[in-house]
Input
Amino acid sequence: MKRSTLVRGTAVTGAFAIALTLTSCAGSAADQAAPSSSDMTIGSVDLSADCPATIVVQTDWNPEAEHGHLYEMIKDDYTVDANTKAVIGPLMSDGEYTGVNLEIRAGGPAIGFQTVSAQMYQDDAITLGYVSTDEAIQLSSTTPTKAVMAPLDISPTMVMWDPETYPDVKTIEDVKPALEANKGVWRFFDGSAYIEYLKSAGLASADILDGSYDGTPSNFVAAGGKDMQQGFASAEPYVYQNEVSAWGKPVKFALIHDSGWQTYQSSMSVKAADFDELSPCLTKLVPVLQKAGVAYYEDPKAANDLILKLVEEYNTGWTYTQGVADYSVKTQVDLGLVGDGPDSTYGNFDDARFADFFEKASKVYTDLGTPPASGYTPADLYTNEFIDTSISF
Output
């Protein structure tokens, strides 16, 4: 697996991060020659009067199938900026032009591994960004955001293990005693908030935790099955069995979601201060985003072709193959990572779940010294008001 030392969802500090950030801010695809859409007829959805001429979306990682709903809205007429890791093209809905362009920006290494929230506050051109609920709560005092749609219903974040070494491990509850008995460790990205929650819930302890995970398979392989490791359920199980030759066998996993840490991963969010101004746009745009998600999972081929092309052209050190993309789409659907959730609507937030998570995460972040903004409630962090409840899988 050629992931170099790229770390999904981890902040990098120091001169290297500053250099990457300056590079990422040097321009955007919108600064280049945008695709000509002046001769295109606007279809049944017209965003031109209420939305920016170019809707800019900042993602949280390199292009991948979890972002497929975005790439579904860009068809043939697009421009790729390999320097700034962005693609821009006419924003399409149901095959019709909406009157505006869509620019999708890569995250992770493309923005110096900063949080999406930080990037949104550095660049006013960004309309929406992928902000997970835990990030939104933690950073509500410094870079407040408000979520308007949930592309993923369940976070793909998981812990994985070797079933030959740990045949009796089935759930998160089984992990701690199994590792303690075998003197193994759970390797994770340092700073992951869910780890603090698991510790407080008695599901993990300092003696089994190792925050040195760097996104590469080397330590997991070297441990020979003794250790467990963080990953995405929609990627690593396939990668380790099929693309990490030094491992080359199945792994089992359990979703962190099932432990009670039920964040909404990569929620489509706006800066809190921009919410009122963008509301007329969001009223029309959010249903378009919902429809794009449904369309992508019905037929992901065109969007995945674009994703694979962009990964190659961006050349950040991230490797993403057709096999991973196909596995990801199927796994997201099979595990319910994407879908209608407990109701019949795609893209909305469950009020009771959000309130429960807000309480749990607020306690974790307060204990860590980064409590949510004073007086904040769940209503400050998300809304379903733009969701079209008739759109479902």
